[in-house]
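Continuing the batch. This is chain 6 of the set; chains 1 through 5 are on the previous pages. Same settings as before, nothing changed between runs. Recording input and output for traceability.
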Amino acid sequence: MTVPDFALGPGALGALMPMHLCLDGQGIVRSVGPTLGKITAEAPLAGRDFFEAFEVRRPGGIGDLAGLAAHAGERLFLVLEPGGISLRGVAVPLAAPGGGMIVNLSFGIALSDAVGRHGLTDADFAPTDLAVEMLYLLEAKNSVMEELHNLNRRLQDARLRAEEQALTDTLTGLRNRRAMDAALARLIAGNAPFGLMHIDLDGFKQVNDTLGHAAGDHVLVHVARVLQSMSRSDDGVFRVGGDEFVVVFPGLADAGRLQGVARRMIEALGRPVVWDEGTARVSASVGIVVSTLYTEPQPDRMLSDADRALYASKNAGRGRVTLHGG
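Output for chain 6:
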């Protein structure tokens, strides 16, 4: 079959290949497609030497028109300066007097960046080019991935909130017994010395019986605030029962200092608790243990010993502190 000779004008070339450029026999750019012209508007290509405007990265060693012609029809990887725009292309010789070549370019994997940087639209690509459809698919994928990321973040936040709620006493906002067990396990695993104080309220049942459970709840919240205010930021304050609290003091195993802290807490907790409908009074009894008294500290044993020390305080008249082994 004989292929007819024909020529395409600039408009037809621009419609078919909006990223093309035509080179004359000396490698000078004589015309460019409309999209290529758009992205090089600040440094127009027409009249420039192709090899000054472009660096052919692959195949290597192409630095003149003869080298480009030797690789006619092969995939080219180029960089357009200025801006360092990465492009793909193919070059074929022109059947015209004086020779020359036509080079058709595309953005390749840099398409998304180029569209955003140069404000390109569907009209800047050939009607047969799937570039815009690919961008739509990429945008859809990015939207789905972003939504999945947001969903995962929400699930992670929900999980963290659930874990936090599982470790928190809802009334007082203090950590609960489960959190205390974890804190003791970490301290013992790290061989860190610590003191442990078991606090029980005296007279709390009478508050509930005479003033009601709302008053009792108010007292418990008040007690939690007092214990937190009299503890260090690294100390752990836990509500472990109805009117029972435990305070753990990492790094503090000095029995004398712990007893001093306990006496100040007992004094503060013994003051009247004023609320909207009246005044409530409680006192506190305290039992203390220190980890250094044990060859191998065990949480259950320490809590049991602190509990015995606490009841020794109650049996001695309440509102007192007792040191286990002291």
